[in-house]
Specification:
Blueprint: H1 2-19, E1 26-30, H2 38-47, E2 52-56, E3 71-75, E4 90-94, E5 104-107, E6 114-119, E7 122-128, H3 134-150, E8 154-159, H4 174-185
Parallel strand pairs: 1-2, 7-8
Antiparallel strand pairs: 2-4, 3-4, 5-6, 6-7
Length: 191
């Protein structure tokens, strides 16, 4: 009886381990142009034993070739009027030592400022909001809400340019108020 009980207990623990989601270690970083910085970011990923890092304001052009083999997903943006560079863009770099490439599953979106993907069964959504662009904020909230309606749990990451005192800022702006209200409506918490 005792052996049978121990065997059943062990089988239950194995089932629990299989259903338990593995921890994910990631970071987000606004790089203000990734050119010449990718090798440093790859070192940081390895040293901190991250699974991946989400970068925004990468300064990559539409259709630009990946800057590294560690780039999993990359979106470039059109050149800003009267600017000599590509100010936006975002990408995901994986840890080549610990992350299997097949674990990243892109979720198709039509917005170049929104990058959704699945990693180890969890849905992530990388977002970039231009500063003080209220129309873009409202439009992006609609798209993020649609993603949230399809996938029950979503981890939103990125640069929202949303300032709010409850986020630890010394001031609040329209984007901060809008994002905070949306978070409250959807019972979200800031991590």
């Amino acid at each position: 009886k005792e052996k049978k009980y121990e065997k059943e207990k062990k089988e239950k623990n194995i089932k629990k381990e299989k259903t338990k989601k593995k921890e994910i270690y990631f970071a987000t970083l606004n790089v203000n142009n990734a050119s010449g910085k990718i090798h440093l970011i790859e070192k940081m990923i390895k040293n901190r034993q991250l699974d991946f890092i989400y970068l925004n304001e990468t300064g990559t052009a539409p259709g630009a070739y990946p800057l590294s083999e560690a780039v999993v997903y990359q979106v470039g943006h059109e050149r800003k009027e009267n600017a000599g560079r590509y100010p936006y863009g975002h990408m995901i770099l994986r840890n080549p030592d610990s992350t299997v490439l097949e674990q990243f599953i892109p979720i198709t979106t039509t917005d170049p400022f929104l990058m959704a993907f699945k990693f180890r069964g969890r849905v992530f959504c990388g977002v970039y909001l231009k500063p003080l662009d209220n129309a873009m904020t409202e439009s992006m909230i609609t798209k993020m809400s649609a993603l949230l309606n399809i996938h029950r749990e979503v981890i939103f990451i990125g640069d929202f340019n949303a300032r709010h005192k409850s986020f630890g800022d010394h001031m609040s702006n329209h984007q901060g108020n809008t994002i905070l209200n949306w978070m409250k409506e959807n019972c979200m918490q800031r991590a």
